[in-house]
Amino acid sequence: MTSRSLLFAALFAPAAAVAQHPHATSTPAPTAVPLEVHVTTQHSITIAGQRINYDATVGSIILRNAGDQPIGEIYYTAYTKRGVTDESTRPVMFAYNGGPGASSIWVHMGLLGPKRVDIPDTTHAPPPPYHLVDNQYSMLDKSDLVFIDPVGTGFSRPVGVGKGTDFWGVDEDANSLAQFVSRFLSETGRWNSPRYIMGESYGTMRSAVLSAVLQSRYNIDLNGVILLSASLDFETKTFNPGNDEAYLMFLPTYAAVAWYHHALPQRPAELRPFLHTVEHFAVNGYARALLADSLSPAERSAILDTLHQYTGLSRDYLDRANLRVTAAQFQKELLREHGELISRLDARFTGETGDLLAEDANYDPQATDIGSAYVSLFNQYMHEDLHYGRDRIYTVKGGAGRWDWSHNSNVGGRPGYTNSAVDLARTLSVNPKLHVLLNSGLFDLATPYYASEWTMDHLGVPAAVRSRITEAEYRSGHMIYVHVPALAEFKKNVAAFIDATSGG
Fold first, then answer.
1. Domain 3-15+36-235+370-410+420-501 has CATH 3.40.50.1820
2. Residues 199-229: pLDDT tens digits?
């Protein structure tokens, strides 16, 4: 695998689309059990004219199994406002990325934390030195923040009798983070604070399962769940033979991306009304065409015309693809004649296409454009500002072994697609005060916005429950915060969400 491919694989893409059990040999567990770490430094930041003095703590919590034996060490970085006299009025938010096997570096240094990586939008970051700035869009004015690195990422690892397979699966991962949240609330005396969890990409699947585990096993209700670039039901995004649903879900994103790059035969002036039209076609005319046993020549020609108008791809290419184009093929094909491919994570980004005859994209331009700046500045910040980790290697991506996707995927003993939407539906139904904020990037080819919104509409819950899910869209990609106007909009939306849900 090339270095570009390795970096692409490091960012958020699920390791497998269909549930399967791991067969890899377990990682030998370390015999020594470290002491928990707590290194605290003091800082301040001014957000919207408000000066906030805060403590930054790099810490760890030792997880234990049912026999009270140590099995894992989870590291976190927490930011807590100083001078709060009544912490029942101060929310706390637990945040993480996805992968699975990704550390929290991206939401930490790009979205929520008090420091932000400052890089140009849609172009490769200049070489070092990179620039770290105060994050005027940090959520620290609204909530304390706890960035979690699951076992195998960051500095977190198995310890004692633990092994990787104790953590590397949908259920195992959620169980470990549930124990972490409970322990953190105890160690910091925050049991009566308003509580939120926020995950990106696979982190949204984690959030759905985690919310159910916290509620059912620990009696921990949440005030809110914040989903960014959601991936809850893999059937909506997996291009497996025979699964036509993914093609329907991705079509509106193809249209948004072609609109952005001026690649449509007749480009509408406004994006959102155009997407409404494409969404309607996706689940009506397009769905009927894919499900039909056969199409007459006239019917097929009409579908090809519409797909050409909505995607910018040629009729000939769409015909040869049998009306079905995967995201990787779309990345490669849309701007092929210009010698460019588009990013899966953020289709606003483009890069040199390389092999002009290749069918699929072989690297992700956004990943290569921003990766070095994030990793370099995070390590510098951790070492110099937070005074930790000079003798450690921070694992940005890794340690997920072969992930066990079997959660909610075996119905009647038959394998299927991993689906955590049912967990979210159950949690919303049981907790009538829980609210969800869904955030989606319109140019995200990793977790298409329409699939996320469609999933929310098909939770199978009453209208009153569905009404507690709020949706927000951004003209950005998977990591919406790379585009600063989207970051500002996200801050406004989340701040309003916390204000509306954190009261007594």
1. yes
2. 999 999 999 999 999 999 999 999 999 999 9
